[in-house]
Design a protein that fits this description.
203 residues, mainly alpha, two-stranded antiparallel ribbon, 11 helices, 56% helix
């Protein structure tokens, strides 16, 4: 089991450095930390009383890891989930906020549990996920990764501007899909043919 800081460092690797893509609702981003997150946390690195793109650019890798650990792992109480799930849920929490937990809560129904998908990890969610893991210890992590992949495809279905994150210009898997499949056993990865079929309606 990797430490939470090691997992956070891997998330930084996936996220990359500074970008300000007009098609990304997150706005200016550095190491995956958005300007909106920095504003909500009051992180004014330039000391001018405002949080602007200059502050996003000034964010260090170490500061990004600290934000992830404090506000995307400990804050949402991901440590209360079974160890095998933590890295994937943590990664998704960074990428999709409370939807990470909503996806997991919805998934527990397939394993005999019933939860309200409120995006919060409380005693009921922690207990239900523990029971789901006990019922399917060899399947729940893959099932969650597949649910993540489905979430990204469906998001791109609804929002054409986001399709470039799910499908590259050459038609191959985009960053969202590659990211989800990092947490899925290779035997469940989509082939190029399956990916092409799933995205065919976007043409």
């Amino acid at each position: 089991m990797h430490s939470v800081n090691e997992i956070a460092a891997e998330i930084v690797r996936r996220e990359g450095g500074y970008v300000n893509d007009p098609d990304d609702p997150g706005g200016a981003t550095n190491f995956g930390v958005t300007i909106h997150t920095m504003r909500s946390l009051g992180i004014d690195l330039t000391g001018d009383g405002r949080v602007t793109t200059a502050d996003v650019k000034a964010l260090s890798l170490e500061q990004a890891i600290e934000i992830y650990v404090n506000h995307y792992f400990h804050g949402p109480r991901i440590s209360e989930l079974p160890d095998p799930l933590q890295a994937s849920v943590f990664d998704m929490q960074v990428n999709a906020g409370a939807n990470a937990v909503r996806i997991l809560q919805g998934l527990t129904g397939y394993f005999g549990q019933s939860l309200t998908a409120d995006g919060q990890i409380g005693p009921k969610t922690a207990a239900a996920v523990e029971k789901a893991m006990a019922a399917a210890p060899d399947h729940l992590v893959d099932a969650y990764g597949i649910a993540r992949r489905n979430y990204y495809y469906k998001l791109a279905d609804r929002r054409p501007a986001s399709r470039k994150y799910a499908r590259r210009r050459d038609g191959g898997k985009g960053g969202w899909i590659v990211r989800a499949e990092e947490f899925i056993a290779p035997r469940f990865h989509f082939t190029r043919e399956q990916h092409d079929e799933r995205t065919a309606a976007w043409d």
